[in-house]
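DM from R.C. (forwarded with permission)

"hey, sorry to bug you on a friday — could you get me a structure for this? deadline for the figure draft is monday and I only need the backbone to look sensible"
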Amino acid sequence: MTVVGPFGLSVRDQALETDVQAGLAAVEAGLLEATKSEVPFITEAAQHLVRAGGKRFRPLLVMLASRFGDPYAPGIVPSAVVVELTHLATLYHDDVMDEANVRRGVASANTRWGNSVAVLTGDFLFARASHILADLGPEAVRIQAEAFERLVTGQILETAGPRDGRDPVAHYLDVIAGKTGSLIAVSGRFGALMSGADEATVDILTQYGERLGTAFQLADDVLDIASDSHESGKTPGTDLREGIPTLPVLLLREKAAREGLAEDLELVRLLDGDLTDDGRHAEVLARLRVHPALEQARRDTVRYAQDARATLAPLPECFAKAALEELCDAVVHRAG
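My reply, with the result:
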């Protein structure tokens, strides 16, 4: 048993492990090539997060999904580069919106060069992704465009908040289905589609990616509260400090409104205060770490990961399917 990709995913077949490693190495080379510019400063800014590393979760999913067709088909590596470039571009923009200081263990681009450069660098990455996508054909362009629309819609819904009378938790799940699930779904879809897999298999791996993407984001929500910066690659409680609603916080608010317990209402009051104050932020973080809402968020993460795993049932038994199932377990493990 060897280890490959994010979260120490174990692959039980030497040939599969070798091919996946080779594919991810090709993606890495493709990312560096796609982020080069004739302007050295643009290259530096565009490669900032590429060189910082990352889980490469989406390219890994492309590689594994391609095993249900021809894994050596020419469109597989470029499509993996496209999804990762798109993801990286959103990180530049997210860090500006969230006023984040750290990303992947290094200073965020907005901290290093300012908001304008960070936003424009994200735009540059989108442009480079589109350039590669054009060579993959009109169907690939359409798929990516639809996913990008969902991604942006999810971000807008998050910014606008739930409409009057809408359940905030249901609204939030719609948000992350767009912001996170859409691009991870495309990773599964591109891998299967570019490999020439049949339509039913493409649909299964798309649905798998969508559900796994939700579990992946919920795990991130848990990590924002429960982890240290070494584990998550960003400052703990970043979403908390910026007032970004995440599942544990929404579940806390729901519980406080339903049960009216004094300690829950007090924690909500602290949440609604000034969390730029380090002392208040630390107190809220510490209290959330032992609150039942965090454990409920973990259980919801497990449920979505189990749904993703169940989606794979119709696929033939093989090492790639086993690896996709283990990805579900790995996502759950991240959430503790």
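R.C.: lifesaver. The mean pLDDT is 90.
me: no worries. The longest strand covers residues 2-3.
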